[in-house]
């Protein structure tokens, strides 16, 4: 048994957690901004998939990874704007529109991918992001190679957490976001445009979801496959609840999920091979369900979540 | 007092909603330092007019002038920029954000950041000027209703309001809090602010305001230049267009107790729990339960109506002990109830009125047999009540939610009274109703009393309780602090007891 543990807990394991957590952190922060403003975005799964596709395509055609990231972010913002158009401007059902956005984005991603790359026996791939060791910091024992010898997008995710907290809690715009998610009428009577603030929050959320997609197809897998997202968007929605709509807690939730996921990957590879690997694959999701059941009993969602805002109503 | 040039003037304001004219050619002006009362019944157009002034509705005709200059106000941002602040009846606050955050919303920050220090300084300054102090770091949910209202006022001043509109501000306050509010408003007026005070409590309007404008059916029905020396009945006549005589409560000889509570206590499930509550209502008597909202009235109403099981204590209805505390059991023993919130616990707004009217007794032989409804009987019952109580609606199959508050309350009253309850428990029977509808409800209560029904009226409007009740018990923090015969009771005395001071039984 100790051999198994040795195999699991090593520097590579820590690095794997960080890597797995990165797209989840982007996606969770994105969903959090949207929900904090009162808009549930069930389009997240499809937005991540379409962004992964456009990012991969742009990078593969232009040869520039950063152009790929830009394309993914713009895709996320565009689809966020589409969701906001339906739910914020037109005030339609957030559930229905979100699922619609996911179905539409997924279909579009498959369609465009086939159109551009055709049907190939081996899916095309690109030379994705390489690790970028940070001088000095990467020499710290254990923590250095795990955290400071990563892809540039990982560093961006790490920086995005305090930045998100700063924006949400310290800037007037962040206060407006929280206010329109709690009591839009209060924000409206204080002269804040509820529609504009919600629209902006959903678009910002979309941009972060786009980064999550970009990481998957350009850093983690270096290819676009139809299963490249495989439920990470849905998990992010659960992690937002688990993280109680707070950037720090949400990022922590992503890290915890990544820990369980990395653990099951190692267990698959370890000497416990007589158990079917599908059993290990289930672990992170079982963990999510249990954690949600235990933790979210006290979680209080933004009061105006799911509620469209219309001004002249009698 | 001599009138300086008006701070704000509304001229010929007309606002239509479809075919309904909510305001028609309304003129109104407020001078600096003046407190203007805006009076009118429900639906007279007070709130609509103020929403026009605050930019929530665009008027169809008319203009608004600020210090003689015409302005266009199309959003609340415009109104705030023009120096108009509004304290809405339902507070516009985010409960989970702090006092300071609620103040700073919509205020541009300093170099991209929220200006906390500036906010704190301004808050302290306003606190000093008008005696309106608040802890900036508490979440709003930790504030009392009175403090939340103070925050709304501070919020308006924070944004530099020169005119403050208050929409029925005293409806949510205890009498002692009302005094605090009034002295703050007087201090603001003394410093040159204009104030519009919307209310239908005539004694408050007479005590506070310098001048009144009375609306009726969307038009200006009259103006009162000296409210302090105008009688309430003169003002009521202006509001209603005809004289209103309060119903006379004749003497009664109460019989045996029809409802008793003995040592009832509840656990804290939601809201304030009851602590050792004992009371009795006799046949042919109206007992009032006074208290500031949130002192256990809801738990009391729920226990009596069988929707909440007490932890300790006993209850009897018409001499029979209540054992299971289910709505069906208490109803079978002879209890009728009119819940506090017509729309949520009273009836089903999306179903036909007839269905809502038989809902509590849907399983009885009168309305169903063998597991099937008797639609003809249900319809006939509803039609009979609609005629008997003059409920204004197109018919029994009308969606209940389409009826006005007064007609809904009549429907709820009709469905209980049709079964001759021995005890009737009602919460806030006339909240949100106009004087005519309230008068009708009061008369029905007095009829029931004459017939030997015992009635409990849970309410916050002391004037109403004093007119209606034979005895008034006061609740504070889940306890009954005392019971007064209404002959001995005054608003001042009840108000003191509502703050927890012991009374005399």
TrEMBL record, chain A:
It is a multi-pass membrane protein. One of its GO terms (cellular component) is plasma membrane. GO terms for molecular function: transmembrane transporter activity. Keywords: Cell membrane, Membrane, Transmembrane, Transmembrane helix. It holds the Pfam family BPD_transp_2. The chain crosses the membrane at residues 7-27, 39-59, 65-89, 96-116, 147-169, 190-215, 221-243, 250-267, 279-300. Its main location: membrane. It is found in: Cell membrane. It comes from the Bacteria. The keyword Ion transport does not apply. PANTHER family: ABC TRANSPORTER PERMEASE PROTEIN, SUGAR ABC TRANSPORTER INTEGRAL MEMBRANE PROTEIN-RELATED. This is Nucleoside ABC transporter membrane protein. It comes from Rhizobium loti (Mesorhizobium loti). The lineage of its organism: Bacteria, Pseudomonadati, Pseudomonadota, Alphaproteobacteria, Hyphomicrobiales.
Automatic annotation (TrEMBL), chain B:
This is Nucleoside ABC transporter ATP-binding protein. Keywords: ATP-binding, Nucleotide-binding. Signal peptide: none annotated. The lineage of its organism: Bacteria, Pseudomonadati, Pseudomonadota, Alphaproteobacteria, Hyphomicrobiales. Residues 8-240, 259-502 form the ABC transporter domain. GO terms for molecular function: ATP binding; ATP hydrolysis activity. Belongs to the ABC transporter superfamily. Pfam families: ABC_tran.
